[in-house]
Amino acid sequence: MLIHLQNFAGLRPKLGDRALPENNASVAENTQLYSAELRGLRQPLAVADLSAETFTVERAYRLSDGSVSIADAPGTWVAFDETAVNFIRGALKNDSFDRYYAAGGTLIPKAARAVDWAAGTPIYDLGVPAPQTKPVVTPPAPGTVDETRAYVYTFVNEWGEESGPSPASAPVTGDITAQWNLSSLDVSFIGGLTPNPLAKRRIYRTVTGQTSVDFRFVKEELIGGGFIATATDDESTDTVSLNESLPSNGWQLPPPGLQGLVNMANGIMVGFIGRDLYFSEPYRPHAWPISYQRAVDADIIGLGVYQSGVVVCTTSNPYVATGTHPISIALTRIDDVEPCLSERSIVNSLAGVMYASQNGLVMVNQAGAFNMTNQLMSRNEWRAEYSPATSRSAADGSRIVTFNSVSEGWLFSPAEPLGYIVNLSGFSDVSGVQTDPFTGEVYIISRDVVYLWNPQTTVPQSYQWRSKVFETPYPVNMGAFRLQYRDIIAGVEFIPGYDYTVYDVSRFGASTIILKVGVPVVTSPLNTLNLYPINGTRIETGVTDSPPVVQFRMPLGGSPISPLQGPATRNSIRVLIWADDVLRYDREITSQNMVRLPSGYKADKWQIELQSAQNIYSFKMAETAKELAKA
């Protein structure tokens, strides 16, 4: 009788331990299964310390700097204290200002240059407020040829963004060749917003065509030392009739409570409030015409982008919005009732937009809604074990990384035949998980520090993988097993060449450690029991000269100071074997030689568990050493 484990696969909670396929797991934690081997996830790598912020960081976004990886350089990060805030780069033509935009939660939509986001000021309210006062026009006396005109004017900010027009003046008639005078013009923005500063004022007047009346550009006034409330117009009708039409008719400010800000194709920004969808003017994120607004029949939870469309995730049926221009956007209501339970569970993928529904992980595209976890778990298992309402997810290529609490989560790999589901555990205070839009890398946020997820340069974490229950036709005694694996380097995370002396002295003698600005945490050199999860992580930003790295993971009662040597080879593998639900074997294995198992019992139900950081690719167990040697 031979049991052979290879091509290791993940969890399928829908099936009982006996019904699982031979390579599936009943327990799988902190392991990578994409290569058919058991491999430990790599320790997260600290890449940015944001603890100087005066708030708990819930979301953090990196400004583009051309790096291939966020680990290549410290980078510049923009942090927010609300998990609902989205931060995106503008899709603008020839944008010499390199503008980024933020909205969501209680934040009024904001806009600023990259350098200003980095400095923290000036950050402007998004949009260009339109003039509120209609112009008063004094026409010249009637002459040989008279004309009836109306006037409007607009504001232009320092970025060249134009506002919607003022109310139109009353039509008046006068000599076409003489000077017309305008008064009562606004000279500054009106309202409580703080937009990008005012730079120009543009004057437009009506030109009567064969079938319509159109406002055409007349003149532009620079702010100089300040506007005055009057203007003049002595441009000929022949000249004005050839000028551009008023481009900003109908342009509005973005609504103050705009949520879910995303970039759609063709330079269109999209957001929502309640059941209403809002679209910006293409390549003009400061302008949000009311005529572009759409509505759905359920409250919107969040938005995802798929190809040239937007998936609208609601409390009921999802929608797909498609079109190349906001005026022609078409909304398609998906028939399946798949309510979205968490905005931060929404991730974009090549195949569609995925999110946590009450029924499972759902993918929506133009073909419909598909429950991606339906074959892996029931709805009750999904709700009870994977907490969809608190899910926060990020796309890691074709894989999904999800945290549903501050310390636990799961990996899902819909495109990987062996990946299935792997649980995550042992993390500490994870407040966010995001995908960097410039590198595609996933990072997590814990205690105001940004960590690169599963980098290739750090040491692997220990994983746990337990097999299905194998049933033999009759009771047997398994006499020997053999492991096959590849040695890897594992050990604590530490910075080569860093002088830890000052840190060690401070940490060993500390009685109060400031973990957050203004929030002291009283502790002792040896932390109180249960203060932190065993094998968890911690950043000691308040200790003198602390390096920005995860604290050494130490055994209970172990040393509180930093390690004195670098990474060491750790080649042991813990093997546990159950026979008829009784633990019969529990040892650390340090070689690939055959290992004898205890005798004196027989069983017809067998289960194997492997715990290690090594790359295991085969486990064989047989009744006799001879049988094992032939396998």
Q: In words, what does this structure look like?
A:
The protein is mainly beta. Helix content is 5%, strand content 39%. It contains 5 helices and 50 strands. It starts with a strand and ends with a helix. Residues 490-498, 511-524 and 535-570 have low confidence and may be disordered.
List the topology elements.
Layout lengths: L1 E4 L19 E5 L1 E2 L6 E2 L4 E5 L9 E4 L14 E4 L5 E4 L9 E6 L2 E7 H6 L4 E2 L10 E3 L7 E4 L1 E7 L14 E4 L4 E4 L14 E11 L4 E10 L8 E3 L3 H4 L18 E6 L3 E6 L2 E4 L14 E2 L4 E7 L2 E6 L4 E4 L7 E4 L13 E2 L4 E4 L4 E5 L2 E4 L7 H8 L5 E5 L2 E5 L5 E5 L6 E5 L5 E6 L6 E5 L2 E4 L10 E5 L2 E7 L3 E7 L2 E2 L10 H9 L2 E5 L2 E4 L45 E2 L3 E7 L2 E8 L5 E2 L6 E10 L2 E8 L2 H6 L1
Antiparallel strand pairs: 1-50, 2-39, 3-4, 5-38, 6-7, 8-9, 9-10, 10-11, 12-16, 13-15, 14-17, 16-19, 17-18, 20-21, 21-22, 22-23, 24-25, 25-26, 26-27, 28-29, 29-30, 30-31, 32-33, 33-34, 34-35, 36-37, 37-38, 39-49, 40-49, 41-48, 41-50, 42-45, 43-44, 46-47, 46-49
